[in-house]
Design brief:
224 residues, alpha+beta, 4-stranded mixed sheet, 3-stranded antiparallel sheet, 7 helices
Length: 224
């Protein structure tokens, strides 16, 4: 939207974080154009934190981040690469996820560590709770250019992903006895044809048992 008027505040892993001179516009809008410095600071920090959330997932997926920008109309995390549909949705969720982290931290600090007492502290706390939730809901509107246009697609994309095929367990065929003295096994050759293999050891054992049985029967006849 803007090509000039940016000031580089810092770099995160080599990615420049820039602020535009128009930032006070959104801060004033969110405070109802009244003097509320705590809200101004809180809104600017939230927008910056939101864009860093996008940046986190961009870097997490190995994409190349170009810049993080904050201006009078919001913020922008620019990157190049070819993310998968699921990754695009996760990047879109990144800003709101980081906003929720900020909300939890604010609640923990205010309720268990230090409760704000000054007007500035109360305004800052209000921006991290009430305005934070408003900005999150606003960003999740499911139409472009809001994050919700990609974020809400995540669930359908996860559901539509094909599960990896289950690896079939190869079961060794058990031998079956087709007749006395024969154990038959079906084996597949390299050319794909099945052949019948007879277990020689089992055949020998069967023959031995038959001979012993015949000898016993002959001995019994002689005795009788």
């Amino acid at each position: 939207m803007f090509t000039r008027g940016y000031l580089t505040l810092l770099k995160i892993r080599g990615v420049p974080v820039k602020a535009h001179w128009s930032i006070p516009l959104i801060a004033l809008f969110m405070s109802g154009f009244t003097y509320m410095p705590g809200v101004w600071v809180g809104v600017i920090l939230l927008i910056l934190w939101h864009e860093i959330g996008h940046l986190f997932f961009v870097l997490r997926y190995g994409l190349r981040a170009v810049s993080v920008e904050v201006n009078g109309f919001g913020g922008l995390c620019q990157y190049v690469g070819a993310p998968t549909p699921v990754q695009r949705s996760m990047i879109a969720w990144g800003g709101v996820v980081f906003q929720m982290i900020a909300l939890v931290i604010a609640l923990v600090v205010a309720n268990f560590i230090y409760a704000p007492q000054s007007a500035f502290g109360l305004e800052l706390y209000d921006s991290f709770i009430r305005i934070n939730l408003f900005l999150a809901a606003f960003n999740l509107i499911p139409i472009p250019p809001f994050d919700g246009a990609e974020a809400w697609k995540l669930f359908g994309r996860l559901k539509g992903q094909k599960k990896p095929p289950r690896r079939e367990r190869r079961v060794k065929p058990k031998p079956r006895r087709d007749g006395p003295g024969e154990v038959v096994q079906l084996k597949r050759r390299a050319d794909g044809k099945e052949v019948i293999v007879i277990d020689e050891d089992e055949v020998k054992e069967t023959v031995k048992e038959a001979l012993e049985r015949a000898a016993r029967e002959a001995r019994d006849k002689r005795q009788n």
